[in-house]
Amino acid sequence: MIRRALAAAVAVVLLSACASTASTSATAVRTTKPSLAQASPGTVSCTYVAASTPAKPVDPPSGSNVPATGTVAAVMTTNEGPISITMDRSRTPCTINSFLSLAQQRYFDATSCHRLVNAGMYLLQCGDPSGTGLGGPGYTFRDETYATDTFPAGTVAMANAGPNTNGSQFFLVYQDTRLPPHYTVFGHMDTAGIAVVAKIAADGQDGSNSAGGGKPNNPARILSVSLG
C-alpha cells in the first residue's frame, strides 16, 4: 500500500508493504464515490483541514464551487523530460483542485522525488519539497476512491497515511502495479511520460527505506509544473 509517514501532526510518505512507514494493517476498502456537497451546477464543495506546518509556504485551496466536470491537463517538467498528465474532474474534483492550486503556487517547482520502488511495485513518489517523505502542504483532505480503481502503468495517485489523509505527495506508476483501491487515482500520464519515469527508475535506488525502495539514484528533479 502507499502510505505517507507521520511527522508532527500528519506529514507524508507512502505504500505499506513496499513503501510506507505507516501501519501495514489492511484499511477498509471504500466502495462508493465520496459524498460531496453540491454547490452551483457542475461544481462541488471541498474541505481542506489544517494539519501541520507546510514544508514550503503555500495557501490551502478554496473549497467553494470546485469544478466537477471536464478534464484538465498539466505538464511536469523533470530533469529527464516532460511528463504530461490528464485529469478527470468528474471523478476526483477535490484532489485535482488541490493539485492545481499547489502547482499554481509553484509548490512542486525545484523539488526532488524522494522515493523509488522498483521491485514488486513500480512507482516514483514525489510532492514533498523537503525531500524527506515527511513534508506536506499543511492541510489534508478526503479520499476520492472507487472499489474499481487499479494501478496500471501511467497512473498518477495520491500517497496517504491512512483514510482521508491526502496532502501533497503523489506517486507515478511506470509499470503495472497491484495495489488495493485505497489511493485516490487523479490522473494518467501519456506514453512519453511513462518513459521518462522508467528512465529515472532504470538508475535504481539506494534501498534506504525500511518499508521498501529508497531514494532514487537519479536526481529525479521536478523543475516546474505548468497547466494546460
Model description:
This protein has helices spanning 93-104, 191-202, and strands at residues 37-38, 43-45, 49-50, 66-67, 71-78, 81-88, 111-112, 115-119, 121-126, 139-140, 155-158, 170-173, 185-189, 221-227. By secondary structure, the protein is of the alpha+beta class. The strands form three sheets. A nine-stranded antiparallel β-sheet has the order 7-14-5-6-13-11-12-9-8. Strand 8 and strand 9 (121-126) form a beta hairpin. The radius of gyration is 16 Å and the shape is globular. The protein starts with 36 loop residues before the first strand and ends with a strand.
CATH superfamily: Cyclophilin-like
Main beta sheet: 9 strands, antiparallel
Number of distinct helices:
2
- What separation lies between the terminal Cα atoms? 31 Å
Overall pLDDT level: 87
Low-confidence stretches: 4-13, 15-35
- The total strand number stands at 14
Record the strand order, biggest sheet.
7-14-5-6-13-11-12-9-8
**Per CATH, which architecture?**
Beta Barrel
Identify the quaternary structure here.
Answer: single chain
Helix content: 10-25%
Strand content: 25-35%
CATH topology: Cyclophilin
In CATH, what is the class? Mainly Beta
The succession of helices and strands, N to C, reads EEEEEEHEEEEEEEHE
- How many domain modules? 1
Gyration radius over CA: 16 Å
The computed structural class is: alpha+beta
Based on CA inertia axes, which overall geometry fits?
Answer: globular
